[in-house]
Write a structure and sequence with these properties.
Strands 3-4-2-1-5-6-8-7 form an eight-stranded mixed beta sheet. It has 28 helices and eight strands. The protein has 531 residues and is an alpha/beta fold. Helices cover 52% and strands 8% of the residues. The protein has helices spanning 3-13, 25-32, 37-45, 51-57, 62-79, 84-90, 99-110, 120-130, 145-149, 158-163, 190-198, 200-213, 226-236, 241-249, 287-295, 302-317, 330-333, 348-362, 376-382, 392-405, 414-419, 425-430, 434-446, 454-460, 466-472, 475-481, 492-501, 511-527, and strands at 20-23, 136-139, 154-157, 172-175, 216-219, 251-256, 263-271, 274-283. It is globular. The protein starts with a helix and ends with a helix. Helix 1 (3-13) runs parallel beside helix 15 (287-295) and helix 26 (475-481) crosses helix 28 (511-527).
């Protein structure tokens, strides 16, 4: 292990809580190659005036720069034929001068490919990130990369949703500056930042327990970032000296070393008589950081723990808990169809022995509540099997609501709709499976193909059969080329066998994401219908 890995491991081990990530724009620039804030604003003022004019007019104040651009972009958006389709889509929600710019920024970010840059090191880091079992993520980013990396995590968008919801502080993503999936939520202009800072004390109160009980690892921020320092000092101002020391121990910033050797240092910054000291890890290979986080991860996935904690919370706050709680002997548990959540009191050894005796008889049948623990990965494993292991109705009603909220795009869905008796768009509209319809809409918007490989398909493979492509390319290349075959040409059975023999987990990133696109293409071809 490197010194950075060892030091971060020590920090994590000294704290009883699993870490939270606090993710900034540098994270998306590193993994997606996306614009920084200036670059994003520059992109959308190109049709109006030079960005430097707006920037100079505000003495370099970026929120104020965004406000000026938004005013001028408002006129362009409402009058230009270029934005006619966008106006129809967002007309009802475009209620302010800022709306037009937010709409277009949100659309642009929503269409970013989420597989990550093709650089080998970047792909190694993305693979490591996907395997991290962190308790949660706080971010000021608007794009959908984190939802792609952590598909089982519950997403809270904006301060309002975080302040007035019931977060469990596990398996959650807090998008405190809004999200591209909801353009109105973006914190972009000076007016937005004024409102955000007015509510900072409430946000700090909501986050204070996290910052005391969990290591907070900042990735993609400069230590001097004024917006992050404002949040940090809002929390620090509420703490007594003994708690402040613990708070400082939990603050870890990760930044690039730009070719220098990896290093560890302490940095102190002050505001209004308060000083905060944070640990700064300088690395070029972020896997040194992710290895330390991974070494101390829980064996139980965070999304499962969140479900358990949420159910217990609902039980405790209930006015009539006696209607939700019962004492059931362990031997009776498997026979009870009413049990949705289990808390055991007793010796774990005895429980494991009893449970193993029950499991052999009931393992093939998931209890209804078990569908809440089904992951998207489970669906990809199930899709190419000749017979599904799931009850389609239960899966669509119990598991798909969380899938639809997760913002993961590629999820097998048509197989389960058809098995539940939904085989055309009219039946889908009349059904209760609204979350499945949302999943289909997201896939339809993104498509099944990886742009940039059409020319290779046209040049070398357009006259070949599915079997030719499967036998003539390695599995990774198959995921890129085969989706370009038209639905009429694809041989479904050879494709099904390919998916069965090459599970998604056997691919390295970004090909794991390409596998998901191909699998969903098969799902559509074998079971799907047009909306």
């Amino acid at each position: 292990m490197s010194d950075v890995t060892n030091e971060l491991s020590r920090i994590l081990q000294s704290n009883g809580g699993a870490p939270f990530l606090f993710v900034g724009s540098g994270f998306s620039r590193r993994y997606l190659g996306s614009d920084d804030w200036k670059g994003l604003l520059r992109r959308f003022c190109a049709e109006i005036r030079e960005f430097d004019y707006y920037f100079a007019s505000t003495d370099g104040d970026l929120p104020m720069t965004a406000s000026l651009i938004a005013r001028d972009f408002h006129d362009l958006w409402w009058n230009s034929a270029k934005y006619e389709e966008s106006r129809e889509k967002f007309r009802e929600t475009s209620t302010s001068v800022q709306s037009a710019l937010k709409n277009e920024i949100a659309q642009f970010l929503s269409q970013l490919p989420l597989e990550g840059l093709p650089d080998e090191q970047i792909q190694r880091e993305i693979s490591a990130l996907k395997n991290l079992n962190v308790d949660g993520i706080i971010t000021t980013n608007w794009d959908l990369l984190l939802e792609e990396l952590f598909p089982g995590y519950r997403v809270f968008i904006g301060q309002e949703e975080l302040l007035f919801s019931n977060p469990q502080a596990i398996a959650e993503i807090y998008k405190i500056h809004g999200c591209a999936s909801r353009p109105k939520s973006l914190i972009l202009t000076s007016e937005d930042y004024h409102d955000f800072h007015e509510k900072n004390p409430y946000l700090a109160a909501k986050l204070i327990t996290l910052f005391i009980e969990h290591p907070i690892i900042f990735i993609g921020y400069a230590v001097q970032d004024p917006h992050i320092q404002r949040i940090i000092f809002s929390i620090a101002s509420c703490l007594a000296n003994d708690k402040l020391e613990k708070f400082c121990e939990n603050l870890v910033f990760v930044r690039r070393s730009h070719g220098r050797s990896s290093s560890i240092q302490k940095i102190t910054f002050s505001h209004a008589g308060r000083s905060v000291t944070a640990t700064v890890l300088e690395v070029d290979d972020f896997c040194e950081v992710y290895a330390a986080i991974d070494a101390g991860k829980r064996k139980i996935p965070a999304r499962i723990l969140r479900y358990c904690k949420e159910q217990m919370y609902e039980l405790v706050k209930s006015a009539e808990p006696e209607k939700k709680i019962a004492v059931v002997d362990i031997d009776e548990l498997d026979a009870s169809e009413q049990v949705e959540f289990v808390v055991g009191i007793g010796l774990a050894k005895n429980h494991r022995q009893q449970q193993s005796e029950i499991a052999s008889e009931g393992q093939s049948n998931l209890a209804r509540s078990g569908y809440r623990g089904v992951s998207i990965a489970d669906l990809f494993d199930d899709l190419p099997r000749e017979r599904s292991t799931f009850d389609a109705d239960e899966l669509l009603r119990v598991a798909f609501p969380s899938f639809a909220r997760s913002n993961a795009t590629y999820i097998p869905v048509f197989r389960y709709l058809r098995a539940a008796g939904v085989d055309d768009s009219e039946k889908l509209v009349c059904s209760e499976y609204k979350d499945a319809a949302r999943v289909i809409e997201k896939i339809k918007k993104r498509g099944y193909r990886v742009r940039g490989y059409r020319s290779q398909y046209n040049s070398n493979w357009s006259d070949k059969t599915t079997t030719d492509i499967l036998s003539g390319l390695d599995p990774e290349r198959v995921t890129l080329i085969l989706p370009f075959q038209s639905p009429m040409k694809v041989e479904r059975e050879p494709l099904r066998k390919f998916l069965l023999e090459n599970s998604g987990s056997s691919f390295r990133d970004p090909y794991r994401s390409y596998y998901k696109k191909l699998a969903c293409y098969y799902d559509y071809l074998a079971f799907g219908f047009e909306l």
